[in-house]
Amino acid sequence: MIKHIVLFKLQAFAEGNSKHENALYIKNKLEELQSVIPELQSIEVVINMPEVSADNYDLMLIAEFKNLADFKVYANHPVHQEVVEFIAKMKTERAAIDFEV
User: Fold this and answer.
1) 12-46 pLDDT, tens per residue?
2) Measured on CA atoms in the order 60, 63, 68, 70, is the torsion positive or negative?
3) Which residues of 6-43 are buried (b: 16+ CB within 10 A; e: fewer)?
4) Distance separating alpha carbons of residues 39 and 74, to the nearest angstrom
5) Distance CA 55, CA 76 (A)
6) CA-CA distance, 84 to 62, in Å (whole number)?
7) DSSP 30-44
8) pLDDT per residue over 56-96, tens digit each?
9) Could you give the residue ranges of the DSSP H alpha helices within the chain?
10) Of 2, 5, 22, 94, which has the maximum CB count within 10 A?
């Protein structure tokens, strides 16, 4: 199994929306991918609590795949790429790790 974990820091305001509004939109769009990309075994997206440190990342994605080939299908899927393009307009930082369990 492959785990894909990504952390994002978002701009305070982008595309006419607050950070929290954009985080909710991104969360929904990423979670919708499970119904579109069969190779995506599971996905969880969480939003950081606004009451905690501003140094924290704002959004975390945890996705699971059977194997690296399935991960690559997901990564290159056109619907996933649409979400990636939107996130690129919002994010200030990104950190990721992919590993096998």
Assistant:
1) 999 899 999 999 999 999 999 999 999 999 999 99
2) negative
3) bbbbbeeebeeeebeebbebbbebbeebeeebeebbeb
4) 7
5) 31
6) 15
7) HHHGGGT-TTEEEEE
8) 999 999 999 999 999 999 999 999 999 999 999 999 999 99
9) 19-32, 68-76, 78-90
10) 22
